[in-house]
Every structure is written in structure tokens, then in C-alpha cells.
Design a protein that fits this description.
Elements: H1 2-11, H2 13-22, E1 26-37, E2 112-123, E3 127-132, E4 138-144, E5 149-150, E6 157-158, E7 161-162, E8 168-169, E9 174-179, E10 194-197, E11 203-210, E12 215-224, E13 227-236, E14 242-254, E15 260-263, E16 267-270, E17 277-280, E18 314-318, E19 325-331, E20 338-345, E21 349-354, H3 360-369, E22 384-390, E23 399-402, E24 404-406, E25 409-415, H4 426-456, E26 462-465, H5 470-473, H6 490-502, H7 507-510, H8 521-529, H9 535-548, H10 552-564, H11 568-576, H12 581-597, H13 604-621, H14 625-633, H15 643-655, H16 659-666, H17 682-696, H18 702-711
Parallel strand pairs: 1-6
Antiparallel strand pairs: 1-2, 2-3, 3-4, 4-5, 7-8, 9-14, 10-11, 10-26, 11-12, 12-13, 13-24, 13-25, 14-22, 14-23, 15-19, 16-17, 16-18, 18-21, 19-20, 20-25, 21-22
Helix pairs in contact: 8-9, 9-10, 10-11, 11-12, 12-13, 13-15, 14-15, 15-16, 15-17, 16-17
Length: 733
């Protein structure tokens, strides 16, 4: 496609101009450049089991759990101020299972300048749309060429934070989130997906296969005139079977404190207090539904939470009424008349999210994701909010999928001639925007809807980008979707292709550590039916059984696997299935020995980094400082960039009464001081900082300790805990 495009540009400039004038679109390959890029490491080869997960829905944790089983459920229980719709499909467990996917829990903060990735571009005379297949098929940018404005927040940086189901997640653009009833930014956020060109010159299909429940998701994108239309579609491999679904389209927009958010809903289920409760929108939305305070006039900015500047942070799930479609829109400030909007036809979910514009935590998280936290950049160019749409009323609920679900959404923009109406009475502003959206839908809606439905039944003309191999491994059969095993994923897929074809693993697979896992009952049956007795067969059966909550049989199988051929994964899994920390530490040491001794293992360096991280956090958690000290001192220098190792050294410095070393590490302005994988537990970094400055000042009385903390505020590189705007001591402003 790149060659074809260059021919058009070089030889047929007049014809190309004619195409743009007539409103036709082009699809072509390109590259998208990030001003700053930090990289997510390959997935963690140590399987992350359900029982190891904490109660945090987002924000990550370094807690190491042992013992096995199913762990403790985290049930969604809304407040009774909420209507029935908030209780329907309520999740029984808010934890996000990760297997069979690998955790993406390691990434850096190097912020390398000017790093480019392949992109797919949809372009006509009105809009230019950049899609990056490598990052979940995210639409990273939608640029309005006529108004010279971005419809979405095009983050100039790729800086992961600990937010998604698997860990790593970045902000910006338009993100597609499908999962089998699991809350959070999806397992595809930082992984490649498929992109295919559809018939015509203005449409592509983004898609992937979810092997956790053998479903497929796709989004057909249609660039029509000055709007981007899309049709998300969910399909199951067993049409007769219902599965719990979770879909949210997350659209990031640039904001300022003066930005105002609009929707055609009158009430909200909001999370500024726990449990989630209903409240009016937009006035007093941070209060209870029965709030009667009326000291401010209706629409006053000081109590009107449609303004970004009025909200510390929060998730606002708008409660559905009888409207057939939902919209979200925004305007940046009183001097602007540009109004981007996002419309969903049908569906129960409409959400507005903000980190907050005034809180230390909100400011820090937006700067961190923008790749400038800890620097002198105070421009606030990285402030954003998200206008999200979903099928269930909140992100704590699921919807039922049987066979197929599909719907249509659109992103566009309008200019409002008299923008003063947008900053007066809220209902008047909503009416103005609703009239503009209705006019837009009357002009474009019928054609776009028919065209998207037509495209849905067509086969792609060309695969522009390939995703992961699991649809091919599972022989997934969905019309209009094709899956392949690319060279990039051949090593991960090979053992399962062998088991499917031959009922056994090859000598090559038996000579290497596993790079992937399967937990589906069908794969477990294939493993059990294999006549080949091998260490790898035992290990994979044990992994699947451990995820299901079994303990005794997995321990027996992991032990037999280890005795047949010592492996890092078997020893580590035996460590976390022990009931005593002493026994767990014994097995962790065996795993570490195997990792270093097996110098022929292709994944050796990756296993060492994964295991070093887990062991360090395990010893931190049980406060075994002697063994932690011995372990850390023996590590090779190339592991010093791991957050688990850095935090271990800080902890040991404080234990050994060396506040100077702790302060230097906590105040490090290099990438090491970024602590990229730490989210909620930045609270711990803050407490270590205060402990260190108090020790250094020899402060003993409450007043002396208070003065030490005040004279040595938390450094900007530490920032604030994830989504905790009230954290005392947070000085990131």
C-alpha cells in the first residue's frame, strides 16, 4: 500500500486533489512518531493466578500472596440510592483474571525521543485519522483539517502506567475495550491487533480474538465526510451459549479547568464516595441523591460539576432514560465554539472520567502519562478527560452476549455560533448541542448506518497489520476475520500447534521454558489426553488447575515436573502454593538457582527479571530484611532498574538507618527515579521520604518531625498515589 500511495502522490497530484475535493478518502500505511517513548517489556513468564490478585480494580499492587485457592472475591455492591439498572448484571467479582494472558507488569521510563511505529491512516479532505495497530488498534489521533483542531487528545508520549487488567496502559486517543466480563482496560491495550482494509477507500476493520472465552471483537471504521463512524461487533464461538460481556469505547479529549462536559442525561451514579451512589447531574453530583442544599444559584460554576475545574477526580456513570441514543460533548473554554461529540446508538453506558485538574494526584497522573512528570514542564498540555460509552450502565456490570452484539457510534464536531449559550444554564446548553447533533445525524446518519451494515458482511480486501496468533491456534472461525501465526509469535504458539496436530510436544518445545499458557477446559482435555509423559505436560496441566482453585493436584504435578526437568516456572509455582513463608522462600531459592544455572535457555534474561521482581516483593512483604539484603547484594547490576530492586534498596537503607542513601534514591531525577510501575503504592514512597527526612534531621518530637516534612516536601518525581486526590503530603501542584 505504501508503494501505491507514493505513485499516486508523485504522478497523479491533480487526481489526488480531485479525490480530496470530492470528499473521497484514502487508506494507507504510514508511521506515527512519539515525542517521548517508554517501552512495555514482553509479558511476565511467571503465570499470575487469580488468588494472587488484590482488591484494587486499577492501580496495581506489589503484594505477594501464597497458598493458592480462589482468593477473596471483590463484589460490586452499589448504594440503594441507585436505580435497578445499576444492579442489573452486577459483577460478583471485580478482580481481573489475567490468565491465559501474560501480565504486562514491567516497563521503563526512558522517554526516548522521536520513536516511530507503523500506523494506518484514514484520510479525506476533512479529517486525518491515525490508527496504531501495535497498541490495541487505538485511534491515536483524529485531526480536523478544516478547523485545524484535534477531535481527541493525541498524546505526544507513550508512557505506560499501572492501570490496565494486565498492568501496562497508556492514555490518549480512542481505545477499544472488550473482555469476557472483566473490568478494566482490556488485555489488548498494549498488544498488537489486526487491521484490514475493507471495500472502498474509506474503511478499515480492527479486530482480535479473545481466547479466554473464544470470542472475537471487531470495529469497522468508516471515514465519511467530517466524521468517523464505527460499528463495534462482538461474536461468540458458540452462538447458543450466553457469556458475560464488557465493552467500553474510551475517547480521550484535551481539557482545561474551564472545559465543560455535556450529556443528555439528568442523573449519575458516581464514585466520589463509596459505595457508588446516584446523584443529580450536573449540580451537586458529588453529593447524595437527596441533597437539598441550595445556597448557590442553579448553574453556578462553583457547584456545577460539568466544569472540569469543579471536580477533584471521579467516574461519572450517567443513568439512562428513555432516549434511544446517548451523547457526550465538550467545549474547552468560554472563548471557544468548537464542540467535539461522541454518540452511541442504543446501549446503557455513558461515562465521563477525569483525573481532576486541581488535585496533586490528578495533575501528577496526567503529567506522568504525558511523559513529563518530574520535569519543569508545567504547561498542563497533557490534561485530558475521557468520554466513554458502553453496553452496561457502569463498568462494574456486564451485559449478556449470545451469538452476536453490534451497534453504531460516531465521533464528530460542530461549531456553535453563539458559544455564550454553552456557558449559561446547563439544560439550555445541552439543548443547543442536541439540536446540532440531530441535524448532523439527519445529514449523515442514514448513509453511514447502511454503509456500515453493508461493510459488516464483506470480506477484507487486504490485511494491513497482523495481531496475536491465538485465533489461528484455536482455529477460530468468524466471517470477515482471518488469523495467522506470524513469525513474531511463532515460539509462543508452537507448543499448542504441536499438541493440536500431534497430541504431544516436540523436542524443541521440551527444551525451552514455556512462553504461553492455556486454561480453557478444551485445552486441558487435550493435555490430559496426550499420551506423552513430559515435564511440560505436567506443568501446563498444573497451571490450568491452579487457576481453577485446585491446590493439591497442581502441587503434585509441579513437583513431578520439576523432578523430571528442573524449571523456573515449576519451582516458582511451588513457592506460591506453599502455606508457610519459610517453605515458599525455599522454593523461590530453587527457582533462582535454576534461572541462573540454565544458560542455554533463550528466555533466561526475561525469566530472571520476572523472578527477581517477584522475590524482592515477596521478601519485602514478609519483612525478611536479612534475606532481602543478601538477595539484593548478589544481583547483577543490569537488574538495578527494576522498581522492585530500587524499592528494596530504599527500604533496606531505612532499616539500616541510612537516610542519606534513601533520600538520594527517592529524589533521583533520572529514569530510575520515575518508579514507572508503582501506582497506588506511591503512598509508600511518600512515607519513606518523610521517614528519611525526619531521620536525617534527627527529629524526635512531633513539632520537629512536622518541620522536617514541611521543609522537605515530596519530590516531584515521586508525585502522588494513584487516583487519591486527598493524600496528605502530596505536593505535586
Amino acid at each position: 500500500m505504501q508503494k501505491r500511495m507514493s505513485v499516486v502522490v508523485l504522478r497523479f497530484q491533480t487526481y489526488l486533489l480531485f479525490l480530496f475535493i470530492e470528499g473521497y478518502a484514502l487508506v494507507y500505511n504510514a508511521e506515527y512518531s512519539f515525542a517521548r517513548f517508554s517501552e512495555t517489556a514482553p509479558g511476565n513468564l511467571l503465570p499470575k493466578f487469580l488468588f494472587q490478585l488484590g482488591a484494587d480494580v486499577e492501580g496495581g499492587t506489589s503484594e505477594s500472596k501464597i497458598g493458592g485457592g480462589r482468593g477473596n472475591k471483590n463484589t460490586f455492591q452499589p448504594d440503594d440510592t441507585c436505580p435497578d439498572s445499576i444492579f442489573e448484571g452486577a459483577m460478583e467479582d471485580l478482580r481481573g483474571p489475567q490468565l491465559p494472558h501474560l501480565s504486562q507488569d514491567l516497563w521503563d521510563c526512558t522517554r526516548q525521543p522521536n520513536v516511530s511505529f507503523p500506523s494506518i491512516v484514514l484520510e479525506n479532505k476533512y479529517l486525518k485519522v491515525d490508527i496504531i495497530p501495535r497498541f490495541g488498534g487505538r485511534v491515536w489521533s483524529i485531526y480536523d483539517k478544516v478547523r485545524h483542531r484535534h477531535l481527541v487528545y493525541a498524546n505526544p508520549s507513550h508512557q505506560p502506567a499501572n492501570i490496565a487488567v494486565l498492568g501496562s496502559w497508556t492514555s490518549g486517543g480512542v481505545e477499544w475495550n472488550w473482555s469476557p466480563g472483566i473490568i478494566g482496560h482490556s488485555v489488548f491495550s498494549e498488544s498488537p491487533v489486526y487491521v484490514a482494509k475493507l471495500q472502498g477507500e474509506n474503511a478499515v476493520r480492527i479486530y482480535e480474538y479473545d481466547r479466554r472465552n473464544q470470542s472475537a471483537w471487531s470495529v469497522d471504521l468508516l471515514l465519511h465526510n467530517d466524521a468517523l463512524w464505527f460499528r463495534p461487533r462482538i461474536r461468540t464461538s458458540q452462538p447458543q451459549k450466553k457469556i458475560p460481556g464488557y465493552w467500553w469505547t474510551c475517547v480521550a479529549i484535551s481539557v482545561t479547568p474551564a472545559t465543560r462536559i455535556f450529556t443528555n442525561k439528568k442523573s449519575v451514579a458516581q464514585t466520589s464516595v463509596e459505595p457508588i451512589r446516584a446523584a443529580p447531574w450536573p449540580v451537586f453530583s458529588s453529593g447524595d441523591a437527596n441533597t437539598t442544599f441550595s445556597g448557590y444559584p442553579q448553574g453556578s460554576r462553583f457547584t456545577d460539576n460539568s466544569y472540569i475545574g469543579a471536580i477533584p477526580s471521579g467516574d461519572f456513570f450517567f443513568i439512562q432514560d428513555n432516549a434511544s441514543s446517548s451523547f457526550l460533548a465538550s467545549v474547552s473554554d468560554a472563548n471557544d465554539s468548537f464542540v467535539p461529540f461522541h454518540v452511541q446508538n442504543g446501549g446503557n453506558g455513558t461515562k465521563f472520567f477525569t483525573w481532576g485538574s486541581g488535585s496533586g494526584s490528578g495533575r501528577f497522573m496526567q503529567d506522568f502519562l504525558g511523559g513529563v512528570s518530574g520535569t519543569n514542564d508545567t504547561s498542563r498540555a497533557y490534561d485530558y478527560a475521557e468520554l466513554q460509552t458502553g453496553r452496561a450502565a457502569t463498568q462494574f456490570q456486564t451485559f449478556q452476549v449470545q451469538g452476536e452484539e453490534a451497534w453504531i457510534e460516531v465521533l464528530g464536531a460542530m461549531n456553535v455560533d453563539d458559544n455564550s449559550s454553552l456557558f449559561g444554564i446547563y439544560d439550555t446548553a445541552v439543548s443547543t448541542i442536541a439540536n446540532g447533533i440531530n441535524h448532523f445525524l439527519l445529514k449523515q446518519g442514514d448513509f453511514a448506518t447502511v454503509e456500515l451494515q453493508r461493510l459488516a458482511e464483506t470480506e477484507p480486501l487486504e490485511i494491513l497489520a497482523t495481531g496475536m496468533p491465538w485465533g489461528a491456534v484455536d482455529r477460530a472461525n468468524f466471517s470477515g476475520l482471518s488469523f495467522v501465526v506470524s513469525d513474531e509469535y511463532l515460539d509462543e504458539a508452537r507448543p499448542w500447534l504441536e499438541l493440536f496436530a500431534n497430541g504431544s510436544f516436540s523436542d524443541l518445545s521440551l527444551s525451552r521454558a514455556p512462553l504461553s499458557y492455556q486454561i480453557d477446559p478444551l485445552w486441558l482435555e487435550r493435555l490430559r489426553n496426550s499420551t506423552q509423559d513430559s515435564w511440560l505436560r505436567d506443568l501446563h496441566i498444573a497451571v490450568a488447575l491452579t487457576e481453577s482453585g485446585d491446590v493439591n493436584e497442581p502441587k503434585r504435578l509441579f513437583l513431578r515436573s520439576f523432578h523430571t526437568r528442573p524449571s523456573v516456572v515449576a519451582a516458582r509455582c511451588l513457592a506460591i502454593l506453599q502455606t508457610s513463608t519459610h517453605d515458599a522462600w525455599e522454593w523461590y531459592q530453587r527457582a533462582w538457582t535454576v534461572a541462573f544455572d540454565d544458560r542455554e535457555e533463550p528466555a533466561r534474561d526475561r525469566l530472571i527479571r520476572n523472578l527477581a521482581t517477584e522475590i524482592a516483593y515477596f521478601l519485602q512483604g514478609i519483612h525478611d530484611y536479612p534475606n532481602l539484603n543478601t538477595f539484593i547484594k548478589a544481583l547483577p547490576p543490569h537488574l538495578n532498574d527494576l522498581d522492585a530492586i530500587l524499592t528494596s534498596k530504599i527500604m533496606l537503607s531505612l532499616v539500616h538507618d541510612d537516610p542519606t542513601t534513601a533520600i538520594a534514591m527517592l529524589n533521583d531525577t533520572s529514569p530510575l527515579g520515575c518508579f514507572p510501575t508503582i501506582a497506588s503504592e506511591r503512598w509508600t514512597l511518600m512515607q519513606w521520604w518523610f521517614t528519611a527526612v525526619e531521620k536525617q534531621a534527627n527529629a524526635t518530637s512531633p513539632v520537629e518531625r512536622h518541620r522536617a516534612r514541611k521543609s522537605h516536601p515530596v519530590p516531584r518525581n515521586i508525585g502522588c498515589p494513584y487516583n487519591n486526590y486527598s493524600a496528605a503530603g502530596c505536593t505535586y501542584w
